[in-house]
Every structure is written in structure tokens, then in C-alpha cells.
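Below is a typical protein record.
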Amino acid sequence: QATLDGIIADPAYHNLFTLVKGFRNGIVYGTKVRFPHALVMIFLFRHGTFRHKLHLVLQATRHHARNLGFFCITYKTSMYILRVLSPTGKEGHYDSFVAGLVGGYLVFGRGIHSSVNQQIVIYVFARVVLAVAKLLVQRPDEGRRRGGGGGWGLIRDEALRRKVEGSAWTVFATVSWAAVMYLFRWHPETIQPSLRSSMHYIYEDCEKFSDLRTLLWRNK
């Protein structure tokens, strides 16, 4: 045990064990996030036997956990390689973007037909949109960190900037819901399957009932 602890703590092996720990954390986090979500969504909205549903839950959980683990390995490995190739031997400002491109393509980009991949990427994309919107109006001296950071200061007028900050979320939420309801009404095939299924359950099945039982106790 002492020998193993010494090897793990040795700086010479730090990068290697970082990959091991990153893969482990990706697996654990992916499992924690996907398993309860898949359990609820599949058992509530999918048809089939208990065994079939359980298989789908475990399959989605494995896919989510595995992809997060492999993305971490790919990203961290790319960062190490870029650092070694750098003339300064230090991390470049855009190394994280390049490493993200590599990991995004190898792990998620080639599996576009996977619903799990689509959900993860859409989640990330939504967070990127919100973050970029904040950066556009954030002052250059706000949010700085070592080696970079700070807003882009698109709006110079302070009063206008605060007004935009105060109403940006309202506009974003309003337009998002307007857009998804329009797509669901006229182009449902373009919406991600699990979202389409839940929307169908809420907004279309609510019109289908014939007695008290199907009105309050059972959907159909």
C-alpha cells in the first residue's frame, strides 16, 4: 500500500494518473446523471417488458458514462500533447479549444445518431449560448482569471448594458419556449425523441379521455 501510494504521489506519473482519475470521474458522474433520468423517462414513457426497459436504462447509462470518461481522457491527452509541442512548454490560450475539438469529434461528433450523445451536446450547446451571451455584455475587467478572462464589452454604455443584462434571460426563455412549441406543433420529427415523447404526453395526451379513470388516474 505504501509503495503504491508513493508511485501515485510521484510527480513523474502525475499526468498518467490524471487520465485514470479523469476516466473514473467521467464514469461516475455519467452514471449518476443518466441512470435516474433514464430510469424515469424509459419506465414512464417507453413501451415493452420490464426486462426490455431495464436493458434500455442500463444501455443509456453505460453510453453516457463511457463517453464522458473517454472524452476526459481524449481532452487531457490532447492538452498534454499541445503543451509538449508548444515552444514555451506551457499551455496556449486556445489549447483547450483545440483539445475540445479533438475530443468532441472523436467521442461525440461521430455518434450523431445516438440520442444520448445528442442530449449531452444539446445541453452543452445551451450552456455555451448562455455563457457567450454573458461575455458579450460583460465588462473586460469582470470575471478575469490568470492568463485570460474578462468580458468582451460589446455594449459600452453602462446603463444600456445593465438593462440588457436584466432582460436577457426573460427574452431567452420566452423565445426558446415559443420556438420549441412551434417546432413540436408543425415539425415534431426534428425534436429530440425523449423531449418529443414528454411533450406529446403533456400537450397532446391531455386531450384524450373518456371517463373519470382516463381523466385523472390513467393517461390512456
Q: What stands out?
A: The CA atoms of residues 81 and 163 lie 44 Å apart.
